[in-house]
Design goal:
Elements lengths: L35 E2 L10 E2 L3 E3 H4 L9 E6 L2 E6 H7 L1 E6 L2 E8 L4 E6 L10 E8 L2 E6 L6 E3 L17 E2 L6 H7 L4 E3 L10 H4 L42 E7 L2 E6 H4 L2 E8 L2 E8 L4 E6 L1 E2 L2 E2 L2 E4 L8 E4 L5 E2 L5 E3 L13 E4 H7 L4 E2 L29 E2 L11 E7 L3 E8 L5 E10 L2 E7 L12 E9 L4 E9 L2
Parallel strand pairs: 2-6, 5-13, 15-26
Antiparallel strand pairs: 1-9, 3-13, 4-5, 6-7, 7-8, 8-12, 9-10, 10-11, 14-15, 14-25, 16-17, 17-18, 19-20, 21-22, 22-23, 23-24, 27-28, 28-31, 29-30, 29-32, 32-33
Length: about 475
């Protein structure tokens, strides 16, 4: 898939990436042997520091709706950094929501990343452009000692005072300026020509016109798979399946990495996945080039999602199987039992395939269709009594057989009519399946559980709790059962 002339957007959350995958470098200092000049000297590409901001309306005079922007949300404050600025500045040191962050963009690997940049004493950590590259990727330098270098995609110091220290990667999404305006209509936008006070008047004067930021500076580099400006030296990219400039979302959790190619997720996807022991959800919308990973765990319960027709302004909406709540692209439940809940965004970054596969050859690749489910059949039902006999008591019998495989029968009695539920929970207390829910007549009932969850998937062997409740009359009873596979 070819990259478009657009601008990138990043949305922040607070989960740091694991350092485990970086253990492949026995000595991180090895990477100093792979440094190559990118052409300009140190600070020849001027990083912006604490630039001025303008409204979305004012920024629309030079940022097109189809462009991508780098957007950041911290503590309720939203800012957008047009990628046009990243083409020419590559680093923006800034403060947002009372915290310092560093927004970076490598135009040669298509990699936007945002890092926590508040020092232990509360001061701002600033980074500059070293003028060096590793695998065509931006190498930043730390202005605290003016020596430590950080390859952007590894974000770990490879020399100097901070050698071996890893920056905290903050989660990222990509989307168009038009989409960002829908997501955060009160957002402010970084203004070109500002935040350059540390540079000479002669140098900063080159960045005062909007015309400077109208075009990508490297011609057809992003769409020409044979065009490279700097060598790739730490390994050989795997080009057997994807072309060099294909765009992927890369996620690192625990000691595992996985790439989600845009081409395979197109045109839209709601993906349920597991990586590094984490249950995650990946949302994708091709038209706005938006890729967002979230945790699927809400209040200790792992949810499973499927895409539904969007009713709001954002193009991708989805429901969870377990409660039927509707969610939007911001990870907010907009209606249903979980209305108002918010999914926690996971750290990730987008990259051209050649750069990702060179740095992370052990990365797995998401297989097309995995974790994408259709809208399930209703997971609750109103049952009919097994006999006409009206029982005198409320009772939930032990399931039979027990242990069981593959299915088991559950017998219960309701002495009066009314609202009732029959739910199954796993050992962690998470709801697995609802077997009955609604207004039922008094009577004797039998229901079969086939050992699947609400989305029709077989559950693991183990102990499960089933619970019968009539909340209107204060009746409830529970028992345990064992699935043996």
């Amino acid at each position: 898939m070819k990259a478009h002339t657009t601008i990138m957007l990043l949305l922040l959350a607070t989960i740091p990436a694991s350092a485990g995958v970086f253990d492949q470098f026995a000595d991180i200092g090895e990477l100093t042997d792979h440094l190559n000049s990118g052409g300009p000297p140190r600070d020849g590409i001027p990083a912006m520091t604490n630039p001025e901001f303008v409204s979305l309306e004012v920024a629309s005079s030079w940022v097109r709706d189809t462009d991508l922007v780098v957007g950041v949300v911290r503590n309720g404050e939203a800012k957008a950094y047009p990628e046009n600025l990243g083409w020419w500045h590559e680093i923006v040191n800034d403060r947002i929501g009372g915290e310092f962050v560093t927004v970076t963009l490598c135009p040669l690997t298509g990699t936007p990343q945002v890092f926590h940049a508040t020092a232990a004493n509360g001061s701002q950590i600033e980074f500059g452009v070293s003028g060096l590259l590793i695998n065509s990727n931006l190498v930043m330098y730390d202005r605290r000692d003016n020596e430590t270098l950080y390859p952007q995609m590894v974000y770990t110091g490879i020399n100097g005072r901070f050698k071996g220290e890893q920056l905290e990667l903050l989660p990222a999404i990509e989307t168009t300026f038009a989409m960002w305006k829908k997501m955060y209509p009160e957002s402010q936008v970084a203004q070109f020509g500002t935040g350059l006070e540390r540079y000479s008047q002669q140098q900063s004067s080159k960045y005062q016109s909007a015309d400077r930021f109208a075009a990508y500076p490297y011609g057809d580099y992003r769409t020409n798979d044979g065009y490279f400006i700097a060598p790739v030296t730490t390994g050989r990219p795997d080009l057997s399946t994807y072309s060099a400039k294909e765009v992927i979302t890369g996620i690192c959790l625990g000691d595992e990495l996985r790439a989600y190619p845009f081409a395979d997720m197109a045109p839209a996807a709601v993906i349920n996945d597991t990586l590094g022991g984490h249950e995650l959800l990946v949302l994708f919308d091709l038209e706005s080039r938006t890729s967002i990973p979230y945790s699927r765990v809400v209040d200790g319960q792992s949810l499973t999602f499927y895409q539904v027709q969007a009713e709001g302004d954002l193009p991708v909406e989805f429901r969870d199987v377990e409660t039927g709540s509707r969610w939007d692209m911001l990870g907010v439940a907009v209606d249903g039992a979980l209305a108002g809940s918010r999914l926690e965004q996971l750290p990730s970054y987008n990259s051209m395939w050649f750069a990702w596969s060179t740095y992370w050859p052990e990365s797995t690749i998401w297989e097309t269709g995995d974790g994408i489910i259709e809208a399930p059949p209703p997971i609750t039902a109103v049952l009919e009594p097994a006999t006409a006999t009206v029982p005198v008591g409320f009772d939930l019998a032990q399931n039979h057989p027990n242990p069981f495989n593959p299915d088991t029968r559950i017998h219960f009695t309701l002495p009066v009519g009314g609202q009732m539920t029959l739910q199954i929970y796993n050992a962690a207390g998470q709801r697995v399946r609802s077997l009955a829910d609604g207004a039922h007549r008094a009577g004797v009932y039998d229901v079969t559980w086939d050992g699947t969850d609400g989305s029709g998937r077989r559950v693991a062997s183990g102990t499960y709790l089933y619970r019968l409740e009539m909340p209107g009359v204060g009746l409830r009873q529970g028992r345990s059962m064992t699935l043996a596979q």
